[in-house]
Amino acid sequence: MRDPLLLLCSFNAVTFLSFGWDLTNYNISSNYYVSSIAVYGNRAFLALPRSSCYNNNTNPTLVEASWYNEQPVFFGRTPFFLDSQTWKNCEHLQDVISVDMEPMRPRLWVLDKGSIECPAKIVIYNLFQRVNYSLDAPEDTGRKFSCIVVDNGPKLNGARGYISFDGLPDLLVFSINEFKWWRIRLEPQDSILPVSTKFIAFSRKEDVLYVTGGEERGIFSLDLTLLRQEFADEVESVNVTFLGEKLGASSALVADFKDGLSYYIPRDFVVVRWNTRQPPQAEYYNVLAQSYDLLPYVSQLYTGPQNGIWAIANPGHPTQCPTDSPHLEKRLVKLLKYNMFT
């Protein structure tokens, strides 16, 4: 029997729209690692984690670039957060691993993993008023942080950030109005597969949060109404629904308006899309892109302007930097464009 993924990957060559970022104004060479992107208008905010072997502790860990083009990153101004990124200064950003924009507001949420000397924290910037909020994360949580997504649902009293963990079945919830944390444990009710929250993504059509790990094969869904309630100070458990198994170990996760859920399989340098209305079997998948030259490693899949799905490409895994890593000029690759109304 043929490997289902090999059968899945028989497709015609496609030319993809792709762009790069010139970060030389930040004294950053082309061989950098971007873990996360957040976009506001034509402004793109990039997380360059200092914990990646591709990046340097002396360079910024959060930068601003232009979205969707290759123009220089400065537009007659210097990003106001550049002056607060000194290494080993715990009041400053240390190791930014994930960013997200608050829906319908010019507020940038930044997840800082911290360092041996400095605790992990969350920092929220208002892009126009230069007002920021900062709060240290609970002890013994930051070194396992993976990513942050921001929920601003109509039934919430202020936005909440959901922070995921690498290899753990937990979410850390931060309320900006109450300025406090809760830790939530996800409990699968219909699967023996372990839950890891390393990669999380909102459904585009329902009040659902999709959850999966890296090496862990299970895909789960969580009813967002369970996260939008008030919690006690101790760790509380919420149930998640098992959706099925992935085709392999993965990175990145994004949902689209057509009931699709996409992720990247590093083993095969491929981004695949599953129709969540169907069983998670190979015949209900399609390949969005497969290329070692274009996508040697994907850290994030992102729904950009006009409902297109974009991949953030990197030369390799953030902690594996072989001397023969490919030189990537194109970092933003458009994989899919669709009309959400048809």
TrEMBL record:
Which InterPro entries would you find in this protein's record? 6-blade_b-propeller_TolB-like, MRJP/yellow-related
Gene3D superfamilies listed in its UniProt record: TolB, C-terminal domain (2.120.10.30)
In the UniProt record, the signal sequence range is 1-20
- Predominant location of this chain? secreted
The cellular component terms of Gene Ontology attached to this UniProt record, alphabetical and capped at eight, are: extracellular region
Please give the superkingdom of this protein's source: Eukaryota
Q: Which UniProt keywords apply?
A: Secreted, Signal
Localization in the cell: Secreted
Key word Secreted present: yes
Phosphoprotein as a keyword of this entry, yes or no, is no
Q: Which family does it belong to?
A: Belongs to the major royal jelly protein family.
Tell me what this protein is called.
Uncharacterized protein
Question: What species is this protein from?
Answer: Zophobas morio
